[in-house]
User: Fold these one by one.
Assistant:
Number 1:
Amino acid sequence: MTQSAIPTSSASVPPITEEDIAEFLQQTPGFFERHAEVLASVTFTSPHGHRAVSLQERQAEMLREKIKALEQRVMEMVRNGNENGHIAQKIHQWSRELAAVKDPHALPGAVTEGLRRLFDVPQTALRVWDAAAPFQNAALGGASPDARAFASSLTAPFCGANLGFEPTAWLPDASQVQSLALLPLREGALDGETPAFGLLVLGSPDTQRFTAEMGTDFLVRIAELASGALSRLR
């Protein structure tokens, strides 16, 4: 007797995956309305105490965690806003002091001393080259051609670790400086193409005071305000 054909085994059918189940539930939003008892019987392990909780309780925990994270972000934004407000006020005060300087010879000292006092910058230095003859002593010249070319190449403040740049040696105690900011001085906008006529150096023993990742909006303002004030020496 001839043997009949054997049906295809069910083992050849691909197993249902978690992704299949998730897609089915997404495509069938009425499933839990028709089977509310399934929702009621679903339990999860709580991350707080490893106890079993219902789906609703787990959702409430997740919502509380999201709210807490949002509250922390809001508090951080408020804190940053307050800090930025204080910095803006200090820049305003520093600008007023520079504008009140009547003798151009006193401008370099007003720039650097004001930054140390108002912004708690431990060390500052300044060089201005190609100053007019009456102000050459006050301008604190002495920058090498390489330093001048480096300053002109900057279209934004340089912030980072002390890598031994020549301008670092202008600081009172360069051996103690771990991070620094180099601010080019030029006529017009800081990101302009005109050659720099000076360089402002800010140094700190704190490695995190000036970093490559920090925002530089306020440093740009400081550089442009210093440039405007010190242009009187040219």
Number 2:
Amino acid sequence: MEIARDVFGDSYGVAGRYVDILASRGVDWGLIGPREVDRLWPRHVLNSLVINPLIASGSRIVDVGSGAGLPGIPLAIARPDLTVALLEPLLRRARFLSEAVAELGLSERVTVVRGRAEDHRERYDVVTARAVAALPKLLDWCLPLVGPRGQFLGLKGESAERELLDVQKTLRKRRLSGEVLAVATPGTNESTWVVRIR
């Protein structure tokens, strides 16, 4: 996919190996549906990068409920300046992530943490999640992980605006501001909604 070459630049080969892992082992292990294989680049890998411009250089990131490594692994591949923790409670998925990270040569900057967000005690510059849960529940898990000047970036569907309305009381209580950004996935005419809370 030509746009992927532009987006990933020198790291395109690593991104391609990740897509191969998703298309084979990711499907075999039940992390990716067989029907998703033809759409891995646009719908999953490139889609994960819509939050890239919102992340400052040198940030520490945690990907909550990482699953198959989306968006954490594509971000780590595209941005060598980032340090990424993939937080995943399920053993099978955590094992998949550990193997993928090792095979892609990302072990120096990417760690796999097996555990639940509620039990995790670290703080990060960016807390992100993609297709994990509805926003009220997601914020209960994610906000305690956001560092003093950090932010939460959630990749959501069309319900993002409605979900943000549902958490206004929580945000006011914690003196936080939230917004929904409609961002185009690189190389497609599809929009993704990013909930940004600071």
Number 3:
Amino acid sequence: METELSRWVADMPGVDPLTEAARQRIGRMARLFDRLLTQVAADNELTAGDWAALSALQRSGPPYQSSPTALYQQLGLTSGTMSVRLARLAQAGLVESVAAADGRSKPVRLTPLGQERWRTATQQRTAREHQLFTDALSSENLKDLNVLLGRLLGRLETEFGQATRHDVPQDT
């Protein structure tokens, strides 16, 4: 039985089928992990973008605050999109504005509810991912996979520069 991949490779002389199969699988897995993240976010009354903003604030460390400018730059958003997102998060009680020493900027910080929501969603996401990995791979397989993916990531970053260390969803 002919597969989509075999048809694609047949139409593209010189394409290595093993390389193409690996690349396609990695892309499909990335899209499926995005679906998982979106689903867990929705289960916690968040969008994936909201979760990304809460995560950026959480990663900033105590007192878990940042300027809107730093947030939109870190997340790769426009200032308008960041403003809408922060307004939605503030209305939900997940972030709050704080006075700045210079009086010009108005940083935002996670509220206790925002930290709790982030923590709950993150625990759910990591538990689901752990279950998916352990259902498919032994502990030894997972160690081997991490070594192999680390090598591939290193090679890609040598060629194209360092990738962002955290996911940046593109929803609004």
Number 4:
Amino acid sequence: MTTIGILGAGRVGTNLAGTLSAAGHHVTLGTRNPEDTTARTIGLAPRIAFADHRTTARTTDIVINATPGDSSLDRLTDLRAELSGKILIDVSNATRDTAEGLPGDLCYPGSSLAERLQAALPDTHVVKTLNTMLFTVMTAPETLATPPTAYLSGDSEHAKKTVSGLLGDLGWQPERIEDLGDITTARATEAMILVVPHIMRRHGFKPFAVSVAR
């Protein structure tokens, strides 16, 4: 059974933790304040453990980055030793927000957070996915009227295959998982976040995904 560490205990992290735990995985939710997070998330799932970020990265097989994208690079670079040899699933978007609190610009134009993470963590297998949708769709793709797409970007074919299996545990059908290629392709999916503010201004805070229609 896979042990999964999730760095970040906000809406994205706790949503993923609950579903992956329900699928049978041992999940550790990494947070800067484990005791406060435990109290705040009582009833999330009995099999979920709580720890600080360093312990979470060191003691689990696969790590998910659900920290704020604009600070992820510094946070995770500090965990280089703990992440060595592991798969790091990056679901974050690195943006500079507008006064409305919505994404306004990319932190790494001409590149991507995933590429920067891979360069900073050469002994880690970074895979980008699930960053092109509202967090609720990550664990319930069937709730959208139009079947959404989950994109994959990464240099390791084995890591992407492993991540595809985890996506299946989250409810994603194989035909809705689109492998784009190596880690440089993440700059395309990360740029998709720039359409989100315009969608939300017109339709409000509703579930959505930026997908391929065939």
